[in-house]
Amino acid sequence: MKIEMDEKIKHRLIGLAVIISIAAIFAPAIIKKSSQRPDRNVTMNVKLPPKPLYPNVVIKSEKELFQKTKVAHVELAPIPEESQLPQLTKADLIEKNVFIKRASTPVELAKKTSARQNASIPVSKKAVESPDLKNKALAQKNNVSSPKKREAKGEYTVQLASFSKLSNAEHLLKHLESKGYRAKILRVKRKTGGFYFKVHVVGAGDKHEAEKLKQKLASTFQLNGFVIHTGVS
């Protein structure tokens, strides 16, 4: 007895058989992979190094630390003389100046001033006729009027530099004297306390001569000073 089947049903049965066979082949592999979970516990043998030993640190008191601490003394190089040219104000010039080293007024300046004073004194006809009276009048006028003229005229100097240390000022003073210049050191009191030392070059009869002296010092020593009228001859 033969069973006749429709072609469509036959094709479906063949396809179903193929699907079942493929599932039977790949199902065990899929089930095996799904059983391997990434979060499962893994046992591993790891050897850790021994625990390090802490060093023996002795904590000392602050007093002991300061007693054992050594303080190093460093000698700083002196500041270049060229960079120490202060800007003086009127208050600095009015302050009382104390001479550290005295430099006498040039003899030539004294001669010039006395010659000018003698030339400016008026002489009457009677004084010209009698030499004795003339000499007495000149002596009296020189003794009385000359100091007033010198006080009114004053002295012009060139301030070359100012230092906070006396040794630097003395070094510049010796250098100036070795070149034939007359100089002096003035000690000026600071408003904040302490002193600073000014180096002045003297020998100028008037402001014009002082300006020439300033230019000469600038070309010789490379120091740009400035002219000051001290008010005292």
Write a brief caption for the model.
Residues 126-135 have a biased composition (Basic and acidic residues). The chain contains eight helices and five strands. The protein is α+β, with helices and mostly antiparallel strands.
Fold blueprint:
Blueprint: H1 7-35, H2 62-68, H3 90-94, E1 98-101, H4 107-120, H5 125-129, H6 131-153, E2 156-163, H7 166-178, E3 182-189, E4 195-204, H8 207-221, E5 226-229
Antiparallel strand pairs: 1-3, 2-4, 2-5, 3-4
Helix pairs in contact: 4-6
Query: From N to C, what is the helix and strand string?
Result: HHHEHHHEHEEHE
Determine Rg (CA atoms, Å).
54 Å
CATH superfamily of the domain at 85-107 and 148-233: Sporulation related repeat
Looking across the biggest beta sheet, what order are the strands in? 1-3-4-2-5
Q: How much helical structure, as a percent, in the residues? A: 40-55%
Overall CATH architecture of the domain at 85-107 and 148-233: 2-Layer Sandwich
Low-confidence stretches: 87-107, 122-130, 143-152
CATH topology of the domain at 85-107 and 148-233: Alpha-Beta Plaits
Count of DSSP-assigned helices: 8
Helical/strand content category: alpha+beta
End-to-end separation: 161 Å
Largest sheet: 5 strands, antiparallel
